[in-house]
Specification:
The protein is of the alpha/beta class and 177 residues long. The chain is 52% helix and 13% strand. The protein has one domain: Rossmann fold, CATH 3.40.50.300. The two termini are 19 Å apart. The chain binds shikimate-3-phosphate.
């Protein structure tokens, strides 16, 4: 597959800006944007929060894998994933087959600040959020490093992050211009 046909896939922990950056990036590049979490909700007619509380995390992970399989068949699309997508190696194989993997990172304090505004994330909807974030980040750290590009988002706006991504994509010959 030619480099211009590849999807642009954003991975990273909750609060690293995958959705905001992805939406902006797609608009700037004139491409379609697909949010895996949103797609799971549409495919199952249920919010993720509800899915976790009614059926548990395992069930959610199955639905997530199904959505990833389907979305990975696309081309030239900007895809924002959920933070736990990296836990399943098959997800990553599917996404990497048709896409460039870009990993967004942020410090614990940035993540706590960005995720503190909403309670839509079941894993963080608890009093010991800081410990949970620290522990999950530690567990997943190595998985988020398996990417074509890694971009630190601390102190950067979604627009600034999208600028950095566009620069890298141009240098790599993945987009024209
Ligand atoms: C999760 C991240 C969430 C969502 C679900 C589980 C995780 O997505 O998929 O709550 O395991 O990190 P965001 O990273 O978009 O918040």
């Amino acid at each position: 597959m030619g480099p211009h046909f590849k999807n642009i896939v954003l991975i990273g922990f909750m609060g690293t800006g995958k959705t905001s950056v992805g939406r902006l990036l797609a608009a700037r590049l004139g491409r379609l944007f697909v949010d895996v979490d949103k797609q799971i909700e549409v495919m199952n007619g249920m919010e993720i929060k509800e899915m976790f509380s009614a059926y548990g995390e395992e069930y959610f992970r199955q639905k997530e894998a199904e959505a990833v399989r389907k979305i990975s068949r696309r081309h030239r699309t900007v895809i924002a994933t959920g933070g736990g997508v990296v836990l399943n190696p098959q997800n990553m194989r599917n996404l990497a087959k048709t896409g460039i993997i870009i990993s967004l990172t942020a410090s614990v304090s940035t993540i706590l600040e960005r995720t503190g505004r909403r309670n839509t994330r079941p894993l963080l909807n608890r009093p010991d959020r800081e410990e949970v974030v620290t522990k999950l980040l530690e567990e997943r750290e190595e998985l988020y490093k398996k990417a074509d590009f890694i971009i630190d988002t601390d102190g950067a706006s979604p627009y600034q992050v999208s600028d950095r991504i566009i620069l890298l994509l141009k240098k790599g010959g993945f987009i024209r211009g």
